[in-house]
Amino acid sequence: MIRHRRRFLIALAILCLPALEPVRAETPGHVSPGGTEVALPLPLSSGSTVRPARFHLARNTDRSASRTNATYSSESHTRRLWDENYPFYLKILNMPFNRELLSGRLDEKIFRNYIIQDYHYLQNYRKVYGILLAKAPDETAARFIVTLIHGIDEEIARIHHTYMKKLHISGEELSSTPPYPSTEFYNSFLIKTAALEPFEVGLAATLPCHWIYYQLGVDIKKSQPGKESKYREWIDGYGAGPWEDSETKKVVDFVEDWMRKTTDETRSRMKKAYETAMKLEYLFWDGVYRDVKWVE
């Protein structure tokens, strides 16, 4: 009883934590004119394997290589999730945002909006894990959720703060820019799922974020972006290291364990939550690229 009460208080503290302070810039950022869309699809390497996962993921863009390199059996639930939803990943990989990011032609204004929106998203993502921490069925799950929360904080400090400083995004701009509808929609779905569904279902809803970013980093790097690209640091921040050693694989394995030991009904709900989150990932990127804001 004491352990559960202590875990609840920790989760409550995480939910109440203020957003991490961004690096303050002294001067306003320069916004370049509209970017140019790359007509060709993102170059994809064939014949190599890929794997799933956000604070580290991986996998190949070739449909025939849509199997992970991980040593999963044919009964792997997470592998099946990734394969069945692989078309959604391909849609994200080949969005204008990522094609232009690879070429270095992405409009800086769009990337600034992305950094701001992703920052908003990650602050709420931390709250999602705070909810899951309070519902964690055992101490092992609770400790793992805590490491994921620390990973989010490290990502914000390592990647987002770097670009906030580069792009002169001030704390005032960050706090005065509301989340886009697609950002709000995605966050609301995750929070609702974590709060109202069983622990396993809320956990499954968070997986696409990990998996997609890791794989994007892997696939974009395989396409060999130019070293002079102004987005090189962002690209290098994801998909680093082999799949077997990645943090993303740990997340996938964690979800796999819960999928194996839950009921068929809950497993079906986990699958649905994962699929919905995959679609919301696409809507998030699309909303940022097209600058879809609330109607005024």
Structure description:
With 296 residues, the protein is mostly helical. It is 63% helix and 0% strand. The protein is built from twelve helices and no strands. The model is unreliable at 18-72 (pLDDT under 50).
Please specify the SSE layout and strand pairing.
Layout: H1 2-16, H2 77-84, H3 86-93, H4 96-103, H5 108-135, H6 139-166, H7 171-176, H8 181-196, H9 199-222, H10 232-236, H11 247-261, H12 264-289
Helix pairs in contact: 1-5, 3-12, 5-6, 5-8, 5-9, 8-9, 8-12, 9-11, 9-12
How is this structure best summarized?
This protein is mainly α.
Examine the secondary-structure arrangement and name the CATH architecture.
Up-down Bundle
Question: Approximately how much helix is present in the residues?
Answer: 55-70%
What is the radius of gyration computed over CA atoms, rounded to a whole number of angstroms?
Answer: 19 Å
Q: Please outline the major beta sheet.
A: none
Number of strands: 0
Helix vs. strand class: mainly alpha
Tell me, what is the CATH class? Answer: Mainly Alpha
- The domain count comes to 1
CATH homologous superfamily grouping: Heme oxygenase-like
Order of helices and strands: HHHHHHHHHHHH
N- and C-termini, Cα separation:
49 Å
> What portion of the residues fall into strands of 2 or more residues?
under 5%
The coarse overall form would be globular
Q: How many alpha or pi helices? A: 12
Please state the average pLDDT score: 79
- Could you tell me the CATH topology label: Heme Oxygenase, Chain A
Low-confidence stretches: 18-72
